[in-house]
Amino acid sequence: MNVNDIRTKYLEFFKARGHAIVPSASLIPQNDPTTLFTGSGMQPILPYLLGEIHPGGTRIADSQKSFRAEDIEEVGDNRHTTFFEMLGNWSFGDYFKKEQIEWMFEFLTSELGIDPRNLYISVFIGDESIGVPQDVESVDIWQSLFASRGIDAAFLPMGSEADGYRLGMRGARIFAYDAKKNWWSRAGVPANMPVGEPGGPDTEMFYDFGTPHDPKYGAECHPNCDCGRFVEIGNNVFMEYVKQENGFEKLAQRNVDFGGGLERIAAAANNEPDVFKNDVFQEIISLLEHFSGKSYEDARYTRSFRIVADHIRGVTFMLAAGIRPSNTERGYVLRRLIRRAIQHAQKIGVPSDQGTESMLNRCAVIVIEKFKQIYSELDGENAYEEITSEIWKEEVQFGRTLENGMKELEKIVAIGSISSQDAYTLFTTYGFPFEMTAEIAKERGLSIDEEGFKTEMKKHQDLSRAGSEQKFKGGLADHSEQTTRLHTAHHLLLKALQTVLGPEVHQRGSNITSERLRIDFSFGRKMTKEEIAVVEKIVNERIQEALPVVRSTLPKEDAEMLGAEHEFGAKYPDLVSVYSIGPVGATLEQPEFTQAYSIEFCGGPHVTNTSELKGTFKIQKEEAVASGVRRIKAVLI
């Protein structure tokens, strides 16, 4: 069963159960400064979990493009990828535990044909300190479902992951773990959640591939063991709590938030523990085998095959989302993926180009052809050319980087040793990969302090992380009053930019915290001081005019005809949420779009009137971030 089959089956299964099928959001999160990429299906859904009305109703489902930069170093085993598709379904105050668990069991066992004897379950053990009890209801539902298939599903209250390695499975099929394993929020465990953040207990589903336990991970195996025998294929989150100053309260509505990695579900459906043997990756791996003369099954090269296949898929989708290589933020992650792919292609004997054609581009073309019918941004008029040209430019530039790095390395080698600091400098200053430094050191008969290099890198990462925390201080995407004000000001700013600079200006990214707003927009030159002053004047005039902010749900075609601004390259459902600002007197029943100052596709949150912005709008900085893209940071003071 290939990945397209499973995606289609999943969406049809939930459509038949009353779910509106909505398109994937962009890999670039909107109005969420906590992360560089959309890393889960839940991120774009947050407003609706908190009570905003979704245009699709109370039941929706999708396949969300996702990317997790923190997994880059993990890629190379049989189950980790950076880019992945997250199958998701949600209930916004509609159905709850019974329906969700029963449907997932039916989908996995009846639709996909997975043997229920290979399924194992975890639930939340409870936490008295936050007033959330053990999830006995989910245990009862799962036990009843397994019993219907003649399977005795014994329950074991496991505790922590460490307890799992100590206790082992003891014949159980359902296990209760603590909040580190069976509580879900964007901020992790309850103690880390900021005020206003929703979360809740979850019940996860694991597939048992039956591979032997590797005791290096712990004495005993259990579903959350890292040895590879068990792989999590889905997580049912029962999002019914919200963090408050004095603890946790129930949300106004009980929500279901399911997320399941498509590639992992495919691995389970095919009883194949290696996700890289799915059809998504096999064509890329076959191409690399052909030009390298190496075999994927050769353990010396398997990791490199996986890294190239994973990274080039991630690179293709990132470029299609409008991200471009740079030395900061998303662009840095993209550049790192391309360079690692080049490095590992070389390790298996595939040069970065074959004659005049880039080998990585050949791999990217496979990705484009595989996914373009599902994700329209890969099928645009210029998509193929833009993606392949950016990869080729980066390959050429990396070639120069390696050349410069080699010159510096030769100077170091001439001294007769390579210290951890030398390796660190080569990597951070010259972009020269540590693995290449280590290989050359070995060839020259020199030792290298790998642990020392890791220590230096950890210091660097800790500093970067601290800088990131400072950068986003108080800025976890939330629905606080000030964040809501700045979000509305963001709409006014975009329209003002179009008024002053021209209608060709469009948003290319946004980032809003409780302290400031940031917008990236298409424009080819630095703004003048006079232009900045006029933009500020326009926004402040609209604030003073006390314009109503009205939310409407419209057919997508109608919203487009009205000229509503929308996200570049994004695919929208048939019904969309639109926010209009003005004119005076507009209401939900009579929004009077033709006279509105600003109209945008958006999910909120917003104030109800511009007078609520309560302050003076001020642009703090205007700068370039990429070719043809400018950035403004602004505040309300």
Based on CA atoms alone, the radius of gyration comes out at 26 Å
Count of extended strands:
19
Q: In CATH, what is the class of the largest domain?
A: Alpha Beta
Tally the helices: what do you get?
18
Could you provide a short overview of the structure?
By secondary structure, the chain is α+β, with helices and mostly antiparallel strands. It is built from 18 helices and 19 strands. It is 39% helix and 21% strand.
Describe what you observe in this structure:
The structure is a single chain. The protein has 637 residues and is of the alpha+beta class. It folds into three domains: 3-275, 2-Layer Sandwich (BirA Bifunctional Protein, domain 2); 278-399, no CATH class; 481-636, Threonyl-trna Synthetase, Chain A, domain 2 (Threonyl-tRNA Synthetase, Chain A, domain 2), CATH 3.30.980. The chain has 18 helices and 19 strands. The strands form four sheets. Strands 1, 2, 3, 4, 5, 6, 7, 8, 9 and 10 form a ten-stranded mixed β-sheet that branches. A four-stranded antiparallel β-sheet has the order 13-14-19-18, with helices on one face. The chain has a three-stranded antiparallel β-sheet with strand order 15-16-17. Strand 5, helix 5 and strand 6 (174-177) form a beta-alpha-beta unit. Helix 9 crosses helix 11, helix 9 crosses helix 12 and helix 11 packs antiparallel against helix 12 (383-415). The longest helix has 33 residues, at 383-415. It is globular, with a radius of gyration of 26 Å. Residues 467-477 have low confidence and may be disordered.
